[in-house]
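Hi W., the D-MYO-inositol-1-phosphate complex you wanted:
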Amino acid sequence: MDNPRIFLPVARRAALEAGRYLLQGLNQKKRVAFKGQVDLVTSFDRKSEEMIYSRLGQAFPDHSFLAEEEIHQERASDYLWLVDPLDGTTNYAHGLPVFCVSIALAFRNEIILGLVYDPSREELYTATRGQGAYLNGKPIRVSKTRKLGRSLLATGFPYDVRTSQDNNLDHFASFAVRAQAIRRLGSAALDLCYVACGRFDGYWEKKLKPWDLAAGALLVEEAGGRVSNLEGEKFNLSSPHIVASNGYIHRSMLDILSPGLVK
Ligand code: IPD
Ligand code: CA
Ligand code: CA
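Structure:
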């Protein structure tokens, strides 16, 4: 495997370019289509995806590529790019500046590079496996909060929240009376970045996709945090459920999400 750092410059250029394009469109009138009852997509999601693919595809024509909206190129390669061209589409469609671009690279299904760009704050989060996590080039670490009762948490609700019983409202209620407070920002990738840099102490969410989680999960790990599924097993790309924390409060979070678990 090549040193993952060699892929950073092209990925960074792709993320900055797409992020800046999204930011200039934030207050423009958008055509919104519905993928589900509350699951939106705009022409900006698609254009951002095309921009990222054109950069990465040109630089790494042999690699596989999986993006949220349309582009799925499966090639005989150990490398797979996972791209969410606009994480936080509901916010974006409402003109709320909480959204980002998320790009990850996996080698044989292990995430080796993660990059999240928030153009509204000009914050670029980067991580490569074994080499730390950075915000605009400066090293970041998870928080040191040791108690759930002192913790600021984040979560989200799945797009089938209206129709499924398994919609996270029960867990939300349990955490609401145990944590210091909970936020629902509307961007899973940013939630994870905020755990990585210590703004949040923990985050959990269910029913997500690999492009939502891949980059952010590596950022949390490289910032010294812990990332698992709801059973406490190490997070991997096939897990749609995630718990990410500073490590100290992980067990307390699992106790609520999977009561009776001995770990
Ligand atoms: C969504 C956001 C949101 C999470 C959703 C995701 P999208 O991604 O990350 O925070 O709660 O379930 O699907 O649709 O904006 O790319
Ligand atoms: Ca997403
Ligand atoms: Ca998206």
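Residues 4-139 form a domain with the Fructose-1,6-Bisphosphatase; Chain A, domain 1 fold (CATH 3.30.540.10).

W.
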